[in-house]
Every structure is written in C-alpha cells, then in structure tokens.
Amino acid sequence: MTKSLDDSLSFFKDKVSDCIKSQKSISVTTHIDCDGLTSGSIITKALIRAGAKCTLRTSKEFSKNVAESFKTDSRDFHIVTDLGGGFGHEMNQNLGEDWIILDHHQIPEAEMDNPNVINAWKYGMDGGVEICAGGMAYLAANALDERNSDLSSIAVVSALGDRQDQGERKSFTGKNFEIAETAKNLGLVEIDLDLLLVGRETRPLPDALAFTSQPFIEGLTWNRDVCLSVLNSSGIQLKEGGRWRVPAELNEDEKRMVIESITKFTSGKNATEIMSELIGYTYTFPREDKRSFLRDGREFSTMLNSCGRISRSGVGMAVCMGDRNKILREGETILTDYRKMIREYMNILSNERWRISESETCVMVNGEDIVPETMTGTISSLIAGSPKNSGKIVILRTKAEENTIKFSSRKSFGCKSEINLSDLMRAGAEKFDGVGGGHDAAAGAKITKDKLDDFLNYLEVNVVNVSSTSSTQ
Questions:
Q1: How confident is the model at residue 269 (pLDDT cuts 50, 70, 90)?
Q2: Strand order of the sheet with strand 77-81?
Q3: Tens digit of pLDDT for each residue in 405-428?
Q4: What percent of the chain has pLDDT over 70?
Q5: Looking at residues 191-204, what average pLDDT do you find?
Q6: Among 20-29, 42-51, 113-122, 265-274, whose mean pLDDT is lowest?
Q7: Cβ contacts of 333 within 8 Å, gap of 6 or more
Q8: Whole-angstrom Cα distance, residue 359 to residue 69?
Q9: How far apart are CA 143 and CA 133, in angstroms?
Q10: Cα distance between residue 295 and residue 303, in whole Å
C-alpha cells in the first residue's frame, strides 16, 4: 500500500538520520539540467547542515549500468534526485534498502508501492506542473530540519527551469505555489506581475525584446535593429549615464510604452495571445545584486541549464549552494557561450531544411552531427515554441554516446493531442531495448543506432499519422 507523503518524508528523515548517527557516507546523484542541479544542491546542503558525510555528482541519464555502478561504489547510502524513475527494481537488486529516489517524472505502476521511491505522482501531485524534483528535494530537506525552509528559493528556480509556471499569467499551482509563498514570506523572493522579457536584469532593452521568443512576435523577435528603432521611437530612455538600461529598470509608464510599441506588430486574435504571454508573474531574488543574472528567477534557471548542458555542472551547483565569488563570473561566461551555441544550432537547423519533416500533427527534426545529446531538450523546446509549430508535437533526434540515438519530444503551445509523451517514449524505447520516459508534454528516449529505423516506424504509426489518441501500438 502506498504511504502518504508525510509518511514517506518521515521515512526519508529516519533513513538519513540513521546514516548520520552511524557515520555512514551518503552519495547524491542528480541530473544535469536546472531541476537536477537545484534538487541535488538542496539535498546536499541539507545533508551538510545535518552533519552528514556526503558527495554530490551528476549524470546525463539513468540506466541499468548506473544502478549497477552503485553496487561497487564506496558510499554506504544513495540518494537520487530528478532521475531513476522506472529503476526501482534494479536499485533494490544492487543496494537492498540503502537508497532513496526523489523525483517527479511519471513512473510505472510497479513502483507505486516501493517505499524507497518518493515520487510526486504517488501522492496525487502532477509532477509535470505542480511540483518538480527541486520541490520534492525541498520537502525532504524541510522534513529533515524545518530551518531548511530557506532552501525554498532554490526550489522556485527549479520549478521555473522545468517550465512549471503553467498557471494563469505564468503563476505556479499546487505545491510549487506553496513553496513560492514560503520563499516570499521569508523575504527571499518577490513575486510581481511584469513584462516577461528575456534577461530582465541583464540585457539591454533592445536585446531583451529581440531575444524574447516566447511569445514569438513577427518582425521583432530575433530582429535587434528593428527593436532598437521601435524603442527609440517610443520615447523611452534606453541609456543612463552611457549604460544600457535593462527591463527591470523600467517604470510603469515606460512599460506601457513598450506594450504600445509591441501592439503595432500584432493583430486580432494573435494580439490577445501575445499580450497574455508577455505579461505574467516574475520571481525576483532581492538579496542578489541588481543587474545580476541570479536576481531574476528565470535567468537564474537558464544559467543553471547552461552549466549542465555544456558539462560545467559543478559551477551551477556551487552557485546554488551559495558561492558568489569567482564562480559567478564563470557562470556568466558559460551562459554567454550557451546562448551562442543555441543560436548556431537553430540557424543550421533552419537553413538545412532537409533535416525537418512535417505532418499535420508532428514535426520530426534530425539533429544528428549538429545538436549534442545534452542539448536535445533545449533545442526541441525552442522549436516547439515557434508559432509555426503551434499545436504540434516536436520530436528531435541526435547521435549520442556508445552508438546510441537520443530522442527528445515536446508538445508545442496549443497542442491538444491526447498522446502522453512519457508513455509513448517509455513504451517505444522498451520495445527496442532502450530507455525512455518523462512527462505528458515533455519526454525523451534513447535507443541503439541499429534500432533507429524500427523506432522511427513506431513513431510514424503512433504520432505522425495520428491526429489525437492516448494509446500506443
């Protein structure tokens, strides 16, 4: 029988407390994306505060090999965050009872009764929108010691990084809302309605408007020269003392002027949709320096994603755990490099049209030899965010290590398909001896290269030629 959430959190506390009392070493393994780095950092910070002997490491994915590697690991107890869904049986086989998974991805029915799997879906929470791994890690950290409530601010970053701001006006729902309120009441985050321009604290106004691609504004998005001209014409002061102003520095009148300028590039129904996406809740961390990329929650999350995606996870985790010295400059450089890489990949994919095939319901993208496997989620999300792909499922593939192919799937804005991408990817991967899973609207899979044609045929039957279905063949 499935335990309640409170029972599971007590179970976690008891397990960890026993390790600390008996001086057992604890290993924390987490994913490389923003949610992974934040959840791993939250748990590790809580463990250090409690006096535990612990180490933290990242993994691009979870597999039977990773589970088996724990068996020969020198650490006594293993905590896995943002990974491990579907591998409860392997963890039991290799570690007995000396492990816990904290996660939010959809899991098979067989794991619902495994007490060592502490997963959002077991407790009636939608792990796709109501809580992420960072939120689950925060709940576990808070169960360990209520003084860890200050880690709620990092859990807010994780929810933003996993795009769980899916409520009205980009607000949070479910446990995410509760966690954000905790951070707000502690004075750690300020939540306000504002313009949702990219780089609120760091980017010059013309750049912020030009690089805002969600919503995509025809004529403005990716067109800095036009944005500069439009903003100049609006009468807004763009520089102060020779320095470019950033969106966070605009007053209410100036924000209205920006909105009026943007409306000239929108029309009819499209205008309503764009404006509803452009104004929403922002999450500002007042204890961070002004004009720092850590001050705005969404920028913070992008920086963490960039660290993981270009193999600099340690920098991101150090920032999450409080390092604010030289490491910050490294984070800024990584973020700049990451954005440059994204632009390069997107330009190649848009120029080499043979890589993209479209149907009424699906966009298939061949990113082989272009997109690294660590960037598939980022690029598939950007493609899904393009207005021309609205209502469709996007599936991107690329080459991965050890002669494998990595797939990343996303539902675009307005997609009404009943296909559950987590089920689709898991069932398809298992059919061809691979691994897969995720969420209803965002999931991935990995198969060996020799099974590529079979997997593509599977997708052809279950996605490309299907208008709306929840079953997979």
A1: low
A2: 53-59, 25-31, 77-81, 99-103, 117-119
A3: 999 999 998 899 999 999 999 999
A4: 97
A5: 94
A6: 265-274
A7: none
A8: 42
A9: 15
A10: 11
Looking at residue 157, its amino acid is: V
Residue 448: Cβ-neighbour burial (10 angstroms; 0-12, 13-18, 19+): middle
Q: Which two tokens stand for residue 310?
A: 């270009």
C-alpha span between 142 and 455 (Å, rounded): 43
For 456-469, what is each residue's pLDDT tens digit?
Answer: 999 999 998 775 44
Once rounded to an integer, what is the mean pLDDT over residues 398-405?
A: 94
Residue 385: pLDDT over 60: yes
Q: How far apart are the first and last CA of the chain?
A: 31
Supply the angle between the helices 421-431 and 452-459 in degrees, to the nearest 10: 150
Tell me the residue type at 170: K
Amino acid in position 370 = I
Q: What gap in Å lies between CA 258 and CA 357, rounded to an integer?
A: 37
Torsion of CA 447, 450, 452, 454, to 10 degrees: -110
Instruction: Band the pLDDT of 270: cuts 50, 70, 90.
Output: low
- What pLDDT, on the 0 to 100 scale, is given for residue 467? 59
Report the b/e string of 132-166 with b at 16+ CB within 10 A: bbbbbbbbbbbbbeeebbebbbbbbbbbbbbbbbb
Asked if the model's pLDDT at residue 473 lies above 90, the reply is: no
According to DSSP, the β-strands at 404-411 and 442-448 are antiparallel
Location of structure tokens 């954005």: 339
Q: Which residues contact 225 (CB under 8 A, 6 or more apart)?
A: none
pLDDT confidence of residue 218? 81
For CA atoms 270, 272, 273, 274, give the dihedral sign. positive
Is the pTM here over 0.85, yes or no?
Answer: yes
Task: Report the pLDDT value the prediction gives residue 469, as an integer from 0 to 100.
Answer: 43
Q: Are 56 and 30 in contact (CB under 8 A)?
A: yes
